[in-house]
Fold:
Amino acid sequence: MASKASSITLTDFHTPQMRAFHLTWVAFFICFFAWFACAPLMPVIKGEFGLSVAQIANINIAAVAITILVRLIVGPMCDRYGPRKTYTALLGLGAIPVLGVAFAQSYESFLLFRLGIGAVGASFVITQYHTSVMFSSRVVGTANAAAAGWGNAGGGAAQAAMPLLLGALVMAGVSETLGWRVALIVPGVAMLVMACVYWRYTQDCPSGNFSELRAAGIPFEGGGKGGMASFKAACRNHRAWLLFVTYGACFGIEIFIHNIAAIYYVEHYGLSLGAAGMAAGSFGLLALFARALGGWLSDRSAARAGGDLNSRVTVLFVLMVGEGLGLLWFANADGVAFALIAMLIFGLFTHMACGATYALVPFVAPGALGGVAGIVGAGGNVGAVLAGFLMKGTGDVRQTLMILGGLVVVASLCALGARFSSTAAAADSAAARA
Structure:
């Protein structure tokens, strides 16, 4: 029976482990590009629909709200049906609202499609699940963080590319009103193409597809209990809920910044739409290496500590404290140059903390991996939704950022609360040496 990969060879496209690694981060990149494609165009969309601050806040909340539910669902679905079928279905069905938003004619219809687009954010859970069943504990933190980080960069790429695509269409003679709609069709089509590629070239785990292995009576790693049983088992584990909070405080902040950064730079610092998109995009593009760095640090720390899981917990705690302090600096930055520097520094810690969180996920409840991945992933969106409501309540972005910075520092204590018992740590140490 094929085993999990104990190393990552980026130039290898022949083994099922590395094919899954590459295709899952590409699928994730496309999904995140589609998820955040509207955000950098909001200054234009705001003018067309005459949106108020409250309506923009509602759109930002809608963009992440449904993802909470879908992430909770797709985790156990991966256990039951396998990541290949689950990802293909999400890509195909998720393309519908992505294409639909381009045809919105009112605030209400735009809000509805934006709500539907939020479902594609659940792609993250499937990506983390697929790499977790393909790679051993020796490198799973790095594999999870690298795949998630490169995929997450789709959000930053959308921030930078969508205004450029709109500008190119306008230069070609397309009106701005029609141009943003045409631009938003691109990610929808890309999702449909990727659905076909994922179905054709991936498999669920090193040994094959879950359905075929179950039918043949062949035992395999991954798959767990499946469905509701996986979710219930994950719910009973307190570490899943503590990481739910920590992920809300890092990935939730990341999503919030993606949704408000471009318009924040336009309204508070007077940047043009293109310049604001580039500034906002730089935050997301940190994910190209920062998430992987967080996972790598977690793996290296555990290796130096003889496989001790609590060393991974310590790494997460330190990164979250750095994130909170950096966010406070960003909120108080005087001038666009200092704001950009502060955003990049706190963004570095934010992405690394996301990577360090999911470097812990495979060890929380291995028999209910899908359930844990879904719960923790949903925490990120809960954090983003709460941040959206906070901004709606304060009516001021800077004040919201100040409050969020303090809350992140407090949430870092949950990382310490997720410490493992000496028995669990010893078990993982033995597995790492095997």
User: Anything to note?
Assistant: The chain has a mean pLDDT of 87. The two ends are 17 Å apart (CA to CA).
